[in-house]
Amino acid sequence: MPVPASMPSAPDPPLMQRLPRAARAAVTGCMVAVPALLLYAAIAGGAEPSHAPAAEGAALAAVAVAVAAVVMAAPLAWARSRPSAALGLLLAEAAASTAAGLRAEQVWPLFPVTGLLAAAVAAARTPRAGLVAALATGAVQETVLQVDLFRDGGWGRVLAPGFIGLTACLALLVMLAWLSGTYVRQRRAYGEALRSHAATRAVTAERLRIAREIHDLVAHGIGVIAIQAGAGKRVIDSEPERARGALTAIETTSRETLRGLRTMLVILRRTEPESASVAEAEPFLGLAALDRLVTTTADAGVHVEVRHCGARRELAEAVDRSAIRIIQESLTNVVRHANAGHCRVTVDWGLDELSVEIVDDGPDTHTQDTKAPLPEAEPGTGYGIRGMQERVALLAGDFTAGPRPEGGFRVAARFPLPTTGAR
């Protein structure tokens, strides 16, 4: 049995979390320093000319403006971890600056910064939080602009066509920021849903694979043991030698089944792939073990005739394993259900496909019909034919099973062979 495939890995952490601490500190410093420089230039450049004669007064004013710019940009240090709080503080600063008499062109760096923070909130928080952040950002920005325009020229300036267009552009930019953040959030949620779905499918596929392996491994051995136990019980007094042979077959089959179960448990408990092969420890791993499978079936009282058509060659591991498992399960059904004394196994080694056919001469006592879809099985029903169907379907092959008109049951599977026959 192959080593189970690893589960889908967790998504990589964000870029900032993968950076060293010093690099993250440098990025955060730039996030504060660049807006602070822009604010300093905007506030100083938009101030009214001062009539203070002393150069010392100008120097003090420049220091005060620099300090104010740094304080106003300081909330950006928490933009990555607390974008909502940083956005609220910056919007409050913009409103307070307007109330203090600063013009809109003196606080314009806050406009793109708050727009980006609104996008960050929409991307990282709930849809309602993102919408509230966008509406608050648009309201504050429009208020700052309209108040500044009204102070300069009243309603005539506010309603001027050029400034109406500026107002519309400002609202449009905020809307675009909100849409961008919403898109990022939806893409992230979609990616998480895909990963969750992939993980669920992987778990389901692995459970089905384990169920098939356990069924194929145990069903044949238990079937042979049950037949031999019944035969030995009937002849234990009259024919001790036959009873002794039945007990020998039971011992051999039970040891092989137990060895296969132990091998499977070792593989399932393995946390990392190992180079050591377990092929020798698992019974009936490929078509090379067909003769041994025929012998154990004969011990259960069913004569098996094997026919090979075409030149034998090395097969891909998945095809080799599935072929022997289908033959094994079919022979198990013959032993347990068909009440047949003879069975024929045909292996056709074609150029581009491998075909196997199992035919018995017993009455039609098989209980499942593969023409119908595969509903969820109820407790107590068999899984053998369903497992064979799943194995063939995984390899893009064809599978049929059903009673023959002349009597008995027929199972046939066809596997397309890859261009490279290497394992």
List the helices and strands and how they pair.
Elements: H1 15-18, H2 21-45, H3 55-73, H4 83-99, H5 110-124, H6 127-158, H7 161-235, H8 240-269, H9 290-299, E1 303-309, H10 317-338, E2 342-349, E3 353-360, H11 384-394, E4 398-403, E5 409-416
Parallel strand pairs: 1-2
Antiparallel strand pairs: 2-3, 3-5, 4-5
Pick out its properties.
423 residues; alpha+beta; Heat Shock Protein 90; 2 domains; five-stranded mixed sheet; 11 helices; 5 strands; 9% strand; rod-shaped
Tell me the number of helical segments per DSSP (H or I, 4 or more residues long): 11
Helicity range: 55-70%
Largest beta-sheet characterization: 5 strands, mixed
Task: Provide the succession of SSEs.
Answer: HHHHHHHHHEHEEHEE
- Quickly give the structural class: alpha+beta
Oligomer designation: single chain
Radius of gyration: 39 Å
Which strand order do you get reading across the main beta sheet? Answer: 1-2-3-5-4
How many independent structural domains? 2
Strand content: 5-15%
Apparent shape: rod-shaped
Mean pLDDT: 80
Straight-line N-to-C gap: 14 Å
The count of β-strands is: 5
Q: Which consecutive residue ranges, at least 5 long each, have pLDDT under 50?
A: 1-13, 275-281, 365-381
Structure description:
The chain has 2 domains: 183 residues, no CATH class; 126 residues, Heat Shock Protein 90. The relative contact order is 0.07. It is built from 11 helices and 5 strands. A 5-stranded mixed beta sheet has the order 1-2-3-5-4, with helices on one face. The chain starts with 14 loop residues before the first helix and ends in a 7-residue tail after the last strand. It is 61% helix and 9% strand. Helix 4 packs parallel to helix 6 and helix 7 crosses helix 10. It is an alpha+beta fold and 423 residues long.
